What does this fold into?
Amino acid sequence: MMGMQMVPWHRSAVPKIGQLGNYVWQPSVEPKGSQARHQLERKDLKVIKKKEGDQESDITSRCEVVVSRLSAMNVVIPNLKKVKRYLLNYPDMIDLLEPVCAAVLERFPPPSQVALELYQDPESDDQYLTVYVRQHEYDKEILDVLDEVSNQFDDILCDTSGWLLVTTDFQDPL
It folds into this structure.
């Protein structure tokens, strides 16, 4: 691997760029100025071997806790297995879900329904989490309100490896 170095996994190695099998890509140099993480070139990344077991079980535990909390908040997760799989692949998204859903629920209390689903683009391999607001009757301002809620989390989302969309599909609640 030219321009790459293998280093032992360490829990403090948090800023992940992406994952490949049992390895995590992390910047070996800090971005300068306004250079964003996604602008780092491959030669500027180092490969870190993950420790087996403890991190994966920690991620699984965190995933279970957030799913349980979302359920207690009455967030509907129709395909829990797909959502969990996504969270295991993008663990930096786990801690973001509860505050996003809480903000959505604050603006759209019952009888509105908030659902967390994994969207799979039928024309590509692109997939991401989506928080849908569903109502029996829709106000013409719903998209503006959803944008306001979503904008609160834009800065945080820019630093995550996955993506989360807050929107509506104009469907009735499930």
Observations:
- The beta strands are 6-8, 18-20, 23-27, 45-49, 113-120, 127-134, 164-167.
- The first strand starts at residue 6 and ends at 8.
